[in-house]
């Protein structure tokens, strides 16, 4: 273990690193040429179209206004200026709630709310107690392993432990109180957010999975029939889903070819004396040399032909219609009813759930046969289990080989090498974003080969976890990210936290001893790592590379921007790890708390800045991740209680443990209560709310045509991209239909006819509503492919021909 | 442990006991005087009104037809005659499915389906293997403890264990396959049963809990307003719930007094020379001597006065209206929607769920404030945990004192005493229904005092568990019984099964050794105990006592009958224990299997007879207990796999354990799949089914007045009992309302008006539907207490006065 001076040096290095990053950021961000790297959100929002700069050529790239260099830290107050409601409007509820985990507003909420009083109490009460009793809890002694070894555990007066137990109770109550208040707040915010949202397709839409295949009936027919029968008053229309995964792959490949063509054309324009050539073989290393521009043009042409064929196949082949559909209702109430009820006798058929918002859908997974989902889930959970627990084996092995001190004692001449490696590794780690790596560096010094293997494994871990989540078959990006995040959390919990603490046999010694290790971890990952986040080195480099080689038009430059987004699968688990560290060490080694507080403050600032100026969230889940955050903080509480229990047991203060044993039970009951009280707000949509919004809509905008509004909301984006060429066509189609016969009127007359039938139940089911629905909305949007030329996503646009 | 001859003697005694009971039953049942004890179900069904017998006086009480004595075992084929569909009509689905657990139809299903092939395979494969390898598995040696002690475990060739592992796989697959098929069958039967049920109140009704109290609004007003807003198309009416617990208690007390009065009057009629007297003091032991008839008449009069007051309080006091209501809908679809969706923003308010059928409601618990339920559940689960695990402490203590052999060795002269005690205890146990007691008899012989304490504890255990379930606050009797049953199962699992097996340290020795113990258990509880069930000694005695002292009229005799019902909280757990025993010992000690098979066959016969002729089920839950049965058999499988795993480990066949370790995971996944696939059929009601039934109703009986049908369905039965006197009044009321204005017409015109409004969502919410509902059904049935004399349950009937 590190000595006190080691910690000091490490702190210094990390603070300097963080400061260097901040300085670099401050200088780079005010250069006009980097404007699109550091302020992409404003470009996307339309709030900015070009860097504000003087007229001359140099000023276009380099900031010559030296005054601005003096105020280079002013991004910090700027980041704090925006109010929470503005932030929700600007970046969505997800981002606002994400920041809330770090802190809220004036630095006086959540992360802070929890840890500020705890830090004060712990430092002022526990440190004196620990010092006076001269135990293991006393920080200074603990840092020196050899001293700890000599400490006699039994000489601690057991009465002292009651202070720790009392504080554990106090902290638990405080944290639970804060958690309750914040769950309440967030749930209210979510409901308010949902209530204030304008009309959105997902409010009216339900995703139906496992539509049964009846021979002789198309999926669309079954859907129509089923919902007309069982939701006669509220069913509006549906959008079939096509298996366009192969088509999408072709589109991606074609885009890549187009990029190469653009690159070569740009090259030719700049050096028009020589046409660019390339070899046709593998990676352009061998084969016949051909003219690049002609080659790519030819390739693209061939691709276009294939794509047209594939598109025809998608549209014509009935097999490409998946047994999944997006079913829309006339009211939010109707959708809420359908989403929350069981439809069919066989509970594996006609599975309904709220549709994710269109941009949140992970289209590939809609093609997964529903029956395989159970098996997929089983396999993935076994794999995650194996991954989480077998990662420990190499780690334990490496750890068992030697530790830093052990090695030093054996070979003291290695010390400078080790230290150099440590700091070199730190810097590499931060730059590459391998925050986790540092956790293992004590082991890595001693054996570089296993270290390298670990490094690679750790680097690809988030990718592996994301792939695993995708295999599980979730259909929303937000769900995928939450699932990956959960897996990462389990990994960290077992391998980083419990692995470090439990592998050494005696908990009593290992928890306090590991404090120094975690202090280093917080400094490297939390301080320097976060500072690296704001610098955005990777997007910076990529943007400039793209800018240099591929950007021709303003639109290309637009596409070269990579705003990124909050990486929930990585940040949420590490955030939860900090909560865990703070909660566990609050009673055991309170000196860790200021480091954590520092992390929360700094990360809050940085992420606030990034969310306001950089990130562009792909979807809006309405803070759906909150229940996970909540329950994992509860888990941290229980872990801390159990560890304290173990600690006291090893200290032969076992008679005081029954006192502490009640605490986990109470904490878990509290969690149950919260789950019962607040979680429904994140999973279901109350009918009361749905009805309220429906009525409001009805009074404010009685004439809106919902069918038109919903018509192409749930179209695979790959079709949408080609729609632009035929958009005019589609619009004509819609208008034509609307002129012919308004759906709304028709439905009303239909329904009122039906209601003249004698007695309850009065749902209209007898007189054929078939015609009405067919006239009511353009059937081709829903499912009918009889005239594919009407389609928005008719790929090879042939204007004048496709219109009939 | 018992030796082989001990087992033989025990078997003989138990078989003789069982036979004696059967003989007694055969003789007693054909005596006309016992007709109402052994055939009450037919009296209740109306299929029988008096015993068929000859004319003379003696023949009224004793069967003189000696031919019938010769065919005294013919109840067995009779019990098998009834087909399953007839059985469902006769006794309900619950009973039919309950029998299905034992076996089905021609002895070839479920219990049998599972164990017949397993027994055959196990006996023919395992016994030879065990014999040839000469291991612990070999039955004969195992029975003699001293021989077992000498057995060397390591001399077993590990290859032999692969036979056991293979069979464990085979059995698991077979059981899972049977379970799957039967879950499927039962789910289908349930849905078919629900679909074939005629119109019932609970199909249209939802119970709403935690209706928020808004000051200035009555509960009824809030209810009406909320459901008219949020279920405008389907809401029909609601029935408020009154806190009549105190009133019900008074009624019960009055009934008791009435019984005493009847008894005394009867006594006086028979011995008219002397008026009966009693002392007024405690238990009639001291105090002033008074005339009994006058005393009870006086008491009843006072009670009637108090009850009238209390009734007024219930009706007038707004505080007696609970925040609970039964809300009825115009269609099953509407009720299904409401029951399955979240109503309010605050998920702890407006909690909806399917209403239990009226006779299934446990009215007392409706008065429990909803907020206290969480705490109640917590407290009860802690108590159950304590109960289950602290029961073990005295048992272990008693067990540690001595065991049978130990005692015998020390004091051989005690042997006859011990054996006498054993068989005396057995008989006592069977008669008193203390089946569980026998489990502990080995310990009880050695120390009678702790044994007595245990006996008392065990005797009151089911009562304790039922009280605990009641405290938990479930509102349906069926749920209460299922919960009590679950608790009893946990108790048996931990104390009877695991307690016996795990308390001795080495599993490897204890599982096979305990086989003899469980064989005895099966014989005592399963054979003799079941035979005791058919004899119905307790109801027999009580019926004749009542008949002698209290029965005056035919109606009194009707009430003196105690048909009883299947005691699910006790029989289901013990049934599950037999499954557990069979599954665990199938591989370890297959000789146990024939005993279990025998039990299933015999119990099936007996219960089939009882269900057809005796039991009168209080409620019909539609086999809602099945998911529990299923999951507990799965639990048995997993336990058996884990125990085999432990067994092989102790046998140093550890290298074969990974093979077995996958099995529990697969089994649990199978359970997950089944849960996902079938459980919804037991918890929810699919909209498809609801709609189908609605449409069918609409076409077959379009003119039915649902309001009349539902009006008093969910009235507290305590009010109902007085209704008979005023039934005429109520009927007039209903007819009057129906003549005035049909609800159906009114609602229709209302709805069709609304549908002319322009666009979706089209739920009528604007024009006041208040009036419609008020005219539509007699408001006093729903909530309005303005004219209490209209009430059916107006207690002190004053005909001519109450009609206005």
The total tally of domains of chain A equals 3
Alpha-carbon distance between the termini of chain A? 79 Å
Quick one: overall form of chain A? Answer: globular
Mean pLDDT of chain A: 71
Which strand order spans the largest sheet of chain A, edge to edge or round the barrel?
Answer: 2-5-1-6
- Number of H/I helices of chain A: 35
> Poorly predicted ranges of chain A (pLDDT <50, ≥5 residues)?
134-156, 398-407, 424-451, 723-804
Range of helix content of chain A: 55-70%
Q: Estimate what percentage of residues of chain A fall within beta strands.
A: under 5%
Topology, number of strands of chain A: 6
The largest interface is: A-B, 69 and 68 residues
Please identify the structural class of chain A as seen in this structure.
mainly alpha
User: What gyration radius of chain A follows from the Cα positions, in whole Å?
Assistant: 31 Å
Main beta-sheet annotation of chain A: 4 strands, antiparallel
The quaternary state of the protein chains shown equals homodimer
Protein name (chains A, B): CSC1/OSCA1-like 7TM region domain-containing protein
GO cellular component, one term (chains A, B): plasma membrane
Organism (chains A, B): Gossypium barbadense
Family (chains A, B): Belongs to the CSC1 (TC 1.A.17) family.
């Amino acid at each position: 273990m590190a000595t006190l001076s080691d910690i000091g040096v490490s702190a210094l290095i990390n603070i300097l690193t963080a400061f260097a990053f901040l300085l670099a950021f401050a200088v780079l961000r005010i250069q006009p040429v980097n404007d699109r790297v550091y302020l992409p959100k404003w470009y996307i929002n339309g709030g900015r179209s070009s860097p504000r700069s003087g007229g001359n050529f140099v000023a276009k790239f380099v900031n010559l206004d030296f005054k601005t260099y003096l105020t280079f830290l002013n991004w910090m107050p700027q980041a704090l200026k925006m109010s929470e409601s503005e932030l929700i409007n600007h970046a969505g509820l997800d981002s606002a709630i994400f920041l809330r985990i770090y802190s809220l507003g004036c630095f006086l909420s959540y992360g802070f709310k929890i840890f500020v009083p705890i830090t004060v109490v712990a430092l002022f009460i526990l440190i004196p107690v620990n010092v006076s009793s001269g135990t293991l809890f006393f920080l200074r002694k603990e840092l020196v392993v050899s001293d700890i070894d000599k400490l006699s555990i039994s000489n601690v007066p057991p009465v002292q432990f009651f202070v720790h137990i009392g504080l554990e109770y106090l902290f638990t109550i405080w944290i639970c109180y804060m958690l309750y208040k914040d769950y309440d707040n967030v749930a209210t915010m979510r409901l308010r957010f949902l209530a204030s949202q304008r009309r959105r397709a997902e409010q009216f839409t339900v995703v139906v999975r496992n539509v049964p295949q009846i021979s002789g009936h198309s999926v669309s027919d079954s859907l129509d029939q089923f919902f007309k029968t069982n939701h006669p008053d509220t069913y509006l229309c549906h959008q079939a889903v096509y298996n366009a995964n192969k088509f999408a792959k072709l589109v991606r490949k074609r885009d890549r070819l187009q990029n190469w063509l653009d690159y070569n054309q740009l090259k030719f324009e700049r050096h028009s004396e020589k046409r660019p050539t390339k070899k046709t073989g593998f990676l352009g290393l061998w084969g016949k040399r051909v003219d690049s521009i002609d080659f790519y043009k030819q390739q693209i042409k061939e691709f276009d032909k294939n794509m047209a064929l594939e598109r025809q196949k998608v549209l014509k082949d009935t097999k490409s219609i998946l047994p999944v559909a997006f079913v829309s209702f006339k009211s939010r109430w109707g959708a809420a009813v359908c989403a929350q009820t069981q439809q069919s006798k066989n509970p594996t058929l006609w599975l309904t759930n709220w549709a994710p918002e269109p941009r949140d859908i992970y289209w590939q997974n809609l093609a997964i046969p529903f029956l395989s989902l159970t098996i997929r889930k089983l396999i993935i959970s076994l794999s995650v289990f194996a991954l989480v627990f077998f990662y420990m084996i190499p780690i334990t092995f490496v750890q068992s080989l030697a530790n830093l001190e052990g090695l030093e004692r054996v070979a003291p001449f290695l010390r400078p090498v080790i230290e150099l490696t440590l700091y070199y590794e730190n810097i590499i780690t931060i730059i590459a974003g391998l925050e986790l790596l540092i956790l293992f560096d004590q082991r890595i010094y001693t054996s570089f080969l296993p270290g390298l293997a670990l490094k690679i494994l750790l680097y690809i871990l988030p990718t592996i976890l994301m792939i695993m989540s995708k295999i599980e078959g979730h259909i929303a990006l937000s769900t995928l990210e939450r699932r990956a995040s959960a897996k990462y959390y389990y990994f960290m919990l077992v391998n980083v936290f419990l692995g470090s603490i439990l592998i050494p046999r005696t908990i009593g010694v290992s928890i306090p001893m590991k404090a120094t290790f975690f202090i280093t971890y917080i400094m490297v990952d939390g301080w320097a790592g976060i500072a690296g986040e704001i610098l955005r080195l990777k997007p910076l480099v990529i943007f400039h590379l793209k800018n240099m080689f591929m950007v021709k038009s303003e639109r290309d430059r637009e596409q070269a921007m990579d705003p990124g987004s909050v990486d929930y699968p990585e940040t949420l688990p590490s955030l939860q790890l900090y909560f865990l560290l703070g909660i566990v060490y609050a009673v055991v080694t309170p000196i860790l708390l200021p480091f954590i507080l520092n992390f929360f403050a700094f990360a809050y600032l940085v992420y606030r800045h990034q969310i306001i100026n950089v990130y562009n969230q792909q979807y809006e889940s309405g803070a759906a991740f909150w229940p996970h955050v909540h329950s994992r903080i509860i888990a941290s509480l229980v872990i801390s209680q159990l560890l304290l229990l173990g600690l006291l047991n090893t200290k032969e203060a076992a008679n005081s443990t029954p006192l502490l044993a009640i605490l986990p039970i109470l904490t878990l009951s509290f969690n149950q209560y919260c789950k019962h009280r607040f979680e429904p707000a994140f999973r279901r949509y109350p009918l009361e709310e749905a009805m309220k919004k429906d009525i409001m809509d009805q009074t404010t905008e009685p004439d809106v045509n919902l069918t038109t509004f919903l018509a192409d909301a749930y179209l695979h984006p790959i079709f949408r991209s080609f729609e632009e060429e035929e958009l005019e066509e589609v619009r004509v189609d819609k208008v034509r239909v609307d002129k012919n016969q308004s759906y709304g009127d028709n439905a009303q007359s239909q329904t009122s006819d039906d209601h003249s039938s004698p007695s309850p139940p009065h749902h209209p089911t007898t007189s054929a509503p078939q015609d009405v629905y067919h006239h009511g909305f353009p059937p081709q949007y829903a499912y009918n492919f009889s005239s594919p030329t009407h389609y928005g996503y008719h790929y090879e646009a042939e204007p004048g021909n496709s219109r009939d």
